[in-house]
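#struct-queue
[09:14] JT: dropping the first one here, sequence first, then the structure tokens:
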Amino acid sequence: MSISAPWVCARATILATVSILLFSSHDALAFSPTTLRLSTFVGSLKNAAQSSGARSTNSALFMSASSKPRGSAATPLDKKSIAVFGGGGSLGGTIFGYLQRASNLYGTGIGGAAMPRNICACSEGSLRLNSILSKGFKLAFAGEQHMRLVDMSDVEHVAERLKGVDAVVVGTVCQLEPGRAVTGNTYEKTPNDKTTEFFLDEKRGFGDEISAQEVEEQLDVHLNLFQTAIDACKLAGSVKHVVVLETPYTPSTEPFAKILDISGLKFTYIYTNASAGGSEGPLPQWIQCKDWTFERGVQNIDGMSLESAALGGNYLSKPGYDAGDWASSLPELKRDNADIYREDIAALAVQSMLSLDWDTSRVIGLSCSGKDDEEEGDSGSAGRFRPSKPPKSDREWCMKSKLVADLLSVVN
């Protein structure tokens, strides 16, 4: 047995060598024509795609590849991370909820580990956010990994917590709640440190939590908070786009526009005809739908109207242009008295990130007219969106968001 074992190994080696030689000489001839045909087929596809007159099933793919990328949904595999400043507020919490749903759906291009992020000052912002999520988003929850408690007086501290974030949502004038205790083991220096919590746009959304006089007295505080947020986005280095929501009690667009221009960041500035500054007579209010959940989606189906303008890529360097000048020439909005739902504003903000190019700065004005979904009942256009069976919402981040996407399809 000791003598035959080497012969067995040698015989196996010889057989393996013969098999390889046979494969190389015979099977290679059988495989090479297939490879050639495959190469020819791929080449044909490339030539057909490059031909302007080609009409085939691949033409749509060619058009998508050649068209200019727009929003995050244009590259769904490249997940974008988004943070919301003041997510404990009524509007901020709704935006966070939409983003959280979108991050779990393929095709939105939104996601990432522990995303979205809520940027707030203390634990009160976290508690308020989860109160909104549990009611409006069917017991959704934002854990510790979604929270970033920040010292809004320290730009570097905020920037550190924005590392890895691709886009940010921030408001102009937020509800402030001073005198809140700094949450332990965060950024406190003494056990008795106090901070100011901020909410986008109001803490509960009742419409009477902020007064114009209060905002006027504390305008410097609001501007400082906005300045810190924008400077932190710039310093973080990863933020590519900022969505700014002009809240109703913003006295003037110009100082916020100036901060945006100086930063050099690309932005989408959303304003409504509910702004309190510089207008006479009764104005629409920002309201929220009673007993709303994400399954009800957009409320004012037919009444939403947009006015938009894109800012040229080199508008800052034009002769005679000063930072913030675009604020004096905003597109005029319709002066209808229809109130605007916060849920619709939130849907517009999120859809703008999905649909619009992040490399372009723009302004979008929203006004509403007519009756909303809730008021029309089963008649009118709203009835068409109320099927006998409850709509399936497992593949939608916001029901009827396609209507908002259609409105944004003509926006640059």
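[09:21] JT: and here's the second one, same format:
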Amino acid sequence: VVVQRDNVVEQVNVAAVVVGDVVTVSTGAKIPADGLLIKGNDLKVDESSLTGESDAIRKNADKPFMFSGCTVTEGDGVFVVTAVGKNSEWGKILTE
């Protein structure tokens, strides 16, 4: 996973992603944590594993929420991590 921490871009293991990291994703990437979109370029995400919605969701200022476990189907984007692991939406479902 490509993250930016303290203005340094680095590659980290998905388990090392923490709240506050700025993550870059592109087509085919699995979203590693929940977050808020900072910028996107024609970004669409398959959220069917979480919501059951079969259509890919276009991410923008009106729909900025990124969810762990979902897959980027088109475009690329950058988001700030707001929750990881059991605190993510997917994690909450798994621990219920």
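[09:30] RK: nice, looked through the second one.
[09:31] RK: The mean pLDDT is 93.
[09:31] JT: good to know. The longest strand covers residues 34-46.
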